[in-house]
Amino acid sequence: MTNLDSTLQRRGLMLVLSSPSGAGKTTIANRLLQRDDNLRLSVSVTTRPRRPGEVDGKDYHFIDTAKFETMVAAGELLEHALVHDNYYGTPRRQVAEALDSAGDMLFDIDWQGRRQLAEKEAADLVSVFILPPSAAELARRLKSRAQDSAQVIARRMAKASDEMNQYFDYDYVIVNVDLEHSVRRVHAILEAERFKRVRQVGVRDFVQTLQSDLKTLR
Fold first, then answer.
1. Where are the domains of the chain?
2. Residue 31 contacts residue 183 (beta carbons within 8 Å)
3. In whole angstroms, what is the distance from residue 62 CA to residue 15 CA?
4. What is the C-alpha radius of gyration for the chain, rounded to an integer number of angstroms?
5. Mean pLDDT of all residues belonging to the chain
6. Do residues 141 and 26 lie in contact, with contact meaning Cβ atoms separated by under 8 Å?
């Protein structure tokens, strides 16, 4: 849980976590959501098949390609990308409503999605790239999930090297050696970014009130 300073009016932010498949971003994202009440997951739409245990509307909004293309054409997606032969996208409305009400949105998306968000909403964006501690550990994590075929795993491993090249676009980089340490580090980033001056939209009025009150106390 988190204790936010409610004295100043604040605009919400978009926290993006990206990584090669298997480096741990989704697990870190889930732990952050458990410990921070003001952080909400941006639920993406996707055309990929639902995995065992996934819930429609909670993990993703699972839709077909025709529906996805309709949403893109209508401008309903803040970002969208083709990843491992499946489409993913972020509904625009849910994000705008959250930021305007001082809510923080968590994005578990790839570098293509982060780049589109940066082009459209750079001021609200905070991005963290998660790296695995070693290539061997990345391969072990992918194989231990037992959710994908050997062919899919091989394709993800082949693509991981290219995905790692995108780290330079991110604000922060974390090597996920220990899960709990990684979660604490990302949460520390989140807390610090919340109190950046540019997000404290109520600070001017607050300072003016303090100055006015000081005059009456002279």
1. 14-216
2. yes
3. 23
4. 19
5. 90
6. no
What pLDDT sits at residue 32? Answer: 96
Determine how many CB atoms are found less than 10 A away from the CB of residue 173. Answer: 12
Q: What pLDDT shows up at residue 84?
A: 79
Phi first, then psi, for residue 15 (nearest 5°) are: -100, 115
What's the predicted TM-score (pTM) here?
0.82
The whole-angstrom separation of Cα 217 and Cα 17 is 48
Pick among 3.40.50.300, 3.40.50.10960, 3.30.950.10, 3.40.50.720: CATH of 14-216: 3.40.50.300
Which residues of the chain carry a pLDDT beneath 50? Answer: 1-4
